[in-house]
Amino acid sequence: MSRRDRFLLFAAGFETALAILAVILGLLFRINPAGTLRFDWYAIGWGLGAVAPALLLFGMVDSLPLEPLRRIRRLLHTTLGQTFAACHPLELLVLAALAGIGEELLFRGFFQVWLGQWGYWTGIIGASVLFGLAHAVTPTYAVLAALMGLYFGFLFDLQDPPNVLIPILTHAIYDWIAFLWIAREVRRESAEYDRVGDET
How many CA atoms lie within 13 A of 27 on its CB side? Predict the structure, then answer.
């Protein structure tokens, strides 16, 4: 099995496990993490439209010349870049969809609803902090992930009652575009490296 295949299998299994964990926690605490999932055009429209602000944050991380952000870029490129570059875009789409479903069912569908029993802000901030901690590969990345979790939390509450479809769509499409961008950047860097090597 190739490195790419191992990565896809592990990542898909991990994101699926998060969805299963959400269901198990839901059974223990009598909360259905998919209970707020409703398909309607309002949710679909917001889920798609809300991708743009999320991509602005990604663009900032990718372009600002700050050392903590450069460290995140290097980490993403070295740990995931080559594998992403070896994947077909549809494979990355499936992976992004699983991430959107698994993570949003757990952090918004369960944790935000559960913590929300102690108040609106307790729910949205608590779930966002947990989301950041789950992505704490660096301190800066944890903070950025928590901010993104806060954004997803507000999207979850856009409808009354809340609808987890909105953050699922935004999260999945954002991840897919980010995966494709990282893969593109790694391919470009590899091509430049090869070109310089040929010239020397």
Answer: 5
Which of 124, 161, 140 shows the shortest CA–CA distance to 42? 161
Q: Alpha-carbon distance 38 to 184, whole Å?
A: 34
pTM above 0.85, yes or no: yes
User: In whole angstroms, what separates CA 131 from the centre of its chain?
Assistant: 10
What pLDDT is attached to residue 197? 57
Segments of 26-144 assigned E as strands = none
Angle at 59 between CA 167 and CA 13, to 5 degrees: 45
Contact 15, 135 (CB under 8 A): no
pLDDT at 77: 85
Tell me how far apart the alpha carbons of residues 168 and 192 are, in angstroms, rounded to a whole number.
36
Residue 173's CB is within 10 A of a number of other CB atoms, namely: 20
Nearest-angstrom CA–CA distance, 43 and 63:
31
Q: Give pLDDT, residue 111.
A: 98
- pLDDT 10s digits, 148-170: 999 999 999 999 999 999 999 99
- What are the DSSP E strand ranges found in 20-146? none
**C-alpha of 68 from chain center:** 20
Characterize 75-96 residue by residue with b for buried, 16 or more Cβ atoms within 10 angstroms of its Cβ, and e for exposed.
ebbeebbbbbbbbeeebbbbbb
Task: Give the Cα separation of 106 and 22 in Å (integer).
Answer: 5
CA–CA separation, 142 and 23 (whole Å): 25
